[in-house]
From TrEMBL:
Keywords: DNA recombination, DNA-binding. The lineage of its organism: Bacteria, Bacillati, Actinomycetota, Actinomycetes, Kitasatosporales. Signal peptide: none annotated. CDD domains: Ser_Recombinase (cd00338). InterPro entries: DNA_bind_recomb_sf, DNA_bind_recombinase_dom, Resolv_N, Resolvase-like_N_sf, SSR_resolvase. The keyword DNA-binding applies. This is Recombinase family protein. It comes from Streptomyces cinereospinus.
Length: 524
């Protein structure tokens, strides 16, 4: 089994066929249906069809149907079971943002395109909404026919059953291995590495991790903060530079450190691990322990004691404009930090990469207020526009009707034509011809094309943000790519630095502010 590499798959005969097909496309009329080719492959084996073969077969299919190929959405090393069409890198871009550019979506086989009935149903609904067609090279699938619609549902069900069978086999393997004391598959918890023991796969303690964890335990028992421990561990080289406080605490709270098998506890929205019990109701030991049960329990009590003094988390996070406020020196995000001492509790903004977090900016709310006023002044009066899809099929049909009617009357008004026999019939025909010509001239050519249109809902962003609060504004600023550089300058004789804000707004901010509806937002 090998991963597909595009550069090595095209042969001389493939390239020659591709050139012939492109020449045939050049002879198609201007109004020929536009085809998008969808190519997908998880891995390339002797039993699978290469992406090159898929593309050439689909180009041949496009030629048979008189379609012009306008694009190729090639998503390789992508699972159709795990990733639906609208979330794939290339096909997703076409479906979400380039729908006006094609009329029919061609794919090699249904299981190359989709493997879940719910995803198939979603795509059929999307095609109906946008006036697109789905056509398969090797299945009787064509949404323009009743039989084709029935076949797409039937074959989709078979593909989902096959995917479910594969999923069941994988789940069964995991269910078996999680009850064994040998380590067959999976990534071991921090502190352990895979090895062989008595010919069986097992886990061994990693020496540096052992040192780091025991040092962290001793510091926790002394009341040292997790943040301080993380900094020391990184500086010592015992843990990687990317270590965060939350990661360190998660490692220290993992019951796997006692040598037991664990699984992720998905309840409560917090990442935690819990013990897996064997058939005898006892934890399953898979390795020598890094901590004894007494050592582990003492560590948890120490972490809990320290944690009780921490302030309660805010509903929307401590930092209101996270991802918008950045440090002018290190470009990292500004975040709110809380310090508690005998005089009270203090909040201040600081960055993540400057030494010691840089100069702390007190009064985060004051910084937010300045940012809000600046944003309202610059962007508040922009109209809220929503992108909507407009089909040109109705306008095209009307243009065709008018052109045929005009041709009919022009033929009738030629010498010897049916309308030249009497003066009355000629005058009436000329009036009708003028009327038809005026109607044709009044049709905007743009309305005959499938296109995105911008609809103003009557509100400005100022109104939206004033009703939605800072959360709504922050979400829009992140979506658009607006950032605010924070400069902190030391003032002689004053503990708190002076703070200056500078908005950085993209040149195409008006286009970016357009709200683009997500047709697949509610889909998993």
């Amino acid at each position: 089994m090998k991963t597909y590499a595009v550069e090595t798959e095209w042969t001389a005969s493939d390239l020659a066929l591709l050139e012939d097909l492109k020449k045939a496309e050049a002879l198609l009329p201007a109004d020929a249906p536009r085809a998008l080719l969808s190519i997908r492959l998880s891995v390339l084996t002797e039993d699978t069809t290469s992406p090159v073969r898929q593309e050439l077969d689909l180009r041949l299919l496009a030629r048979e149907k008189g379609c012009r190929v306008v694009g190729i959405a090639s998503d390789l090393n992508v699972s159709a079971t795990k990733v639906p069409p609208w979330k794939r890198k290339e096909l997703g871009e076409w479906l979400n943002n380039r729908a006006p550019e094609f009329d029919v979506l061609l794919f090699w086989k249904l299981d190359r395109f989709i493997r879940r009935m719910s995803d198939l149903s979603t795509m059929i609904e999307w095609c109906e909404r946008y006036g697109k067609n789905l056509v398969s090279k090797n299945d009787s699938i064509d949404l323009e026919s009743t039989v084709g619609r029935m076949m797409v549902t039937l074959i989709g069900g078979i593909a989902e059953i096959e995917a479910a069978n594969t999923s069941t086999r994988v789940a069964s393997l995991w269910d078996y291995t999680r009850t064994q004391d040998a380590w067959f598959v999976g990534k071991p918890a921090y502190g352990f590495v895979t090895t062989k023991k008595n010919g069986k796969p097992s886990l061994a303690i990693e020496p540096n991790a052992y040192k780091a964890l025991h040092w962290a335990r001793r510091m926790a028992l002394r009341g040292v903060s997790a943040r301080r421990m993380a900094l020391c561990l990184v500086r010592s080289g015992l843990m990687s530079p990317g270590l965060t406080t939350s990661t360190l605490l998660r490692r220290l709270r993992n019951p796997a450190l006692m040598g037991y098998r664990v699984e992720e506890n998905k309840n409560g929205g917090v990442r935690r691990s819990k013990l897996i019990l064997g058939h005898d109701g006892k934890p399953i030991r898979v390795a020598d322990p890094i901590f004894t049960k007494e050592e582990y329990d003492e560590l948890q009590e120490a972490i809990d004691r320290r944690g009780k003094n921490q302030p309660q988390r805010q509903t929307h996070g401590a930092t209101q404009f996270l991802g918008v406020l950045t440090c002018v020196d290190c470009t990292s995000n500004m975040t709110v930090h809380v310090t508690t001492n005998k005089f009270g509790q203090y909040q201040y903004l600081r960055c993540q990469k400057c030494k010691s977090g840089g100069l702390g900016a007190p009064d985060p709310q004051g910084v937010y207020d300045v940012l809000v006023n600046d944003v309202l002044r610059v962007l508040g009066d922009f109209p809220v526009q929503v992108r909507e899809y407009a089909q040109g099929a109705e306008a095209r049909a009307e243009v065709k009707r008018l052109e045929e009617a005009i041709a009919y009357y022009m033929t009738g008004l030629e010498p010897g034509g049916r309308y030249t026999k009497t003066r009355f019939t000629q005058e009436q025909a000329e009036k009708t011809l003028d009327k038809l010509t005026d109607e044709l001239s009044a049709i905007d050519p743009e309305t005959t094309q499938d296109r995105w249109t911008l609809v103003h809902n009557g509100k400005t962003f100022r109104e939206v943000w004033e009703s939605g609060g800072m959360e709504a504004m922050a979400e829009d600023l992140r979506r658009v790519g607006v950032t605010c550089e924070v400069t902190r300058t030391k003032v002689k004789g004053v503990r708190a630095p002076s703070v200056h804000l500078r908005l950085k707004i993209p040149r195409d901010v008006r286009e970016r502010l357009v709200i683009k509806g997500d047709d697949f937002a509610a889909k998993l």
